[in-house]
From TrEMBL:
The keyword Lyase applies. The keyword Lyase applies. Pfam families: FumaraseC_C (PF10415), Lyase_1 (PF00206). Its EC number is 4.3.1.1. Keywords: Lyase. GO terms for molecular function: aspartate ammonia-lyase activity. One of its GO terms (cellular component) is cytosol. PROSITE patterns: FUMARATE_LYASES. InterPro entries: Aspartate_Ammonia-Lyase, Fumarase/histidase_N, Fumarase_C_C, Fumarate_lyase_CS, Fumarate_lyase_fam, Fumarate_lyase_N, L-Aspartase-like. It catalyses: L-aspartate = fumarate + NH4(+). GO terms for biological process: aspartate metabolic process; tricarboxylic acid cycle. This is aspartate ammonia-lyase.
Amino acid sequence: MTNLDDCRIERDSMGERQIPASAYYGIQTLRAIENFPISGLKPLATYVDACVLIKKAAAIANGSLGCIDPAVSEAIITAADEILQGNLREQFVVDVYQAGAGTSHHMNVNEVLANRALELLGDIKGNYQRVNPNDHVNYGQSTNDVIPTAIRVGGLLALKHTLNPALESAIAALDKKAVEFQSIVKSGRTHMQDAVPVRLGDTFGAFAQILRDHHARIASAASDLTKLGLGGSAVGTGLNTHPEYRSTVARILGELIGQPLTVAPHLMAAMQSMAPFVNVSGSLRNLAADLVKISHDLRLMDSGPKTGFKEIQLPPVQPGSSIMPGKYNPVMAEMISMVCFQVMGFDRSIEMAAQAGQLELNVMMPLIAYDLIHSIEILGNAIHALTDQCIVGITANPERCRNYAEGSLALVTALNTHIGYLNAANVAKESLATGKSLRQIILEQGLMEPELLAQVLDLEGMSELPQSD
C-alpha cells in the first residue's frame, strides 16, 4: 500500500494521480510509464541532452523577449545546466516506443525541468502555478517542433562527439599502415581467385580513402540538420510565439552546441518532412556497407594460421574458443560487421517511419530519434574500438604475401601484350597442370628473352599504382 506521505497529488485534464514525492517527473510522465511498458529502453543520453539544450535556449530567448518571468527563466536555465552536467538522469523514464510524435518524452523533459526549477526557487515540486511544465518550460513550443529539432541537434551532437572523431582516427591509422606496408607485394584477388599483384600498403590506403569519402558524404548529409523548424509551434504557423523567437532561439541554440544553426525557410516543411533524417541515415547505411566489406577483407587476409591466407596478423585480444586451446579469432572485425547490420536495419525502420506521417505531423518521430542517434553512436563506438583494438596493431607477413604474389597464375596478364592472350592462357594452363613456374614454361618454349621476361614480371613494377593527376 502506498504511503500518502511519500506522494504528492498532481492533476491534468484527465484527472489526478499520486506521484512519488521524490520524483521530478509529473503526471503525464506517470501516465506514459503505465501506458508503454514495452521495451525497457529509455531515451538515449544524447537525445536527452538535445531536448534539454532546446529548453535552455528557449528559456533564454523567452526570458530576454519578456515572454516569461526572468526569475523563472533563470531557474529553468539552471535546472537545464544541472541535467546537462549529469544530474537527474534517472528521471527520464519514458519507453522509446511511446505516444506518436514524442509527446510523452517531451512532457517528461518539461516536468523534470519545472520541478527542479521550483526547488531552485525555494518552492515544492508540483506547485505548477509558480513554474508550469506547459506554460513556462514549454512556452512558445510544441512537441511538433521541439522533437524534430531535438533529432537534428541530437544527430549533430552524436556526429561531433562520437562518429566524426572515430572516423578521423581510423583514417589516420589506416594511412599509417599504408605507409608501413607500402613495400610489401601481395597477390590481388578478384572473384576470390588469383589476380595480378598489388601492394599491401595500397590495400590499406584504399581502406583509408573509402572512409575519407564516407566522412565527406556524411558531413554533406548532416548539413540539412542545421536548418530548424523550431518556432513553428503546433503546425508551422508559429502560433503563440514571439515574432523574434525563431531567429533568437536558433542563434542561442547554435551557440550552445558550438555550431551555427538557422531557421528553416519553410517551418511547415521542416516539421513535416523527415527527409534530412532519411538522408543522414542513408549515408550511415552506405558507410556500414563498406565497413562490412573492409571487416571481411581483414578477416580473410588474417585467415589461418595454417590453412588460410595469413598475409596479416590482427592483434589477438581474447581467447577464441571454449574448446580449442590457443585459438584466436578476429573478434573486432566480427563485432563491427554486427554493428553495421544493425545500422542497416535501423535505416530501413527510419525510411518506413519517415513516410508514415500524415498532413501536418509525422507521428513516428520517437522511433526515428532513437534509431538515428543510436546508429551514429554505435557506429562511432565500433569504429573507435576497431581502430584501437585492431587496426593500430596489425602486422604483416611479407614472406607469405610475396610467395602468393609470385605463385599467382594471374601474372600471365602482364604477358598479354608480348605473347598474346591465347598463348598466355596456354602457359597458365600448363603451369597449373605441371606445377612448373610461368617463367620456366615461357623460357622453355622460347616465347620471350630472359631479360625482357624479368622486366615484364617485375612484381614491384606491375603492382605500383599510377600517380594521380
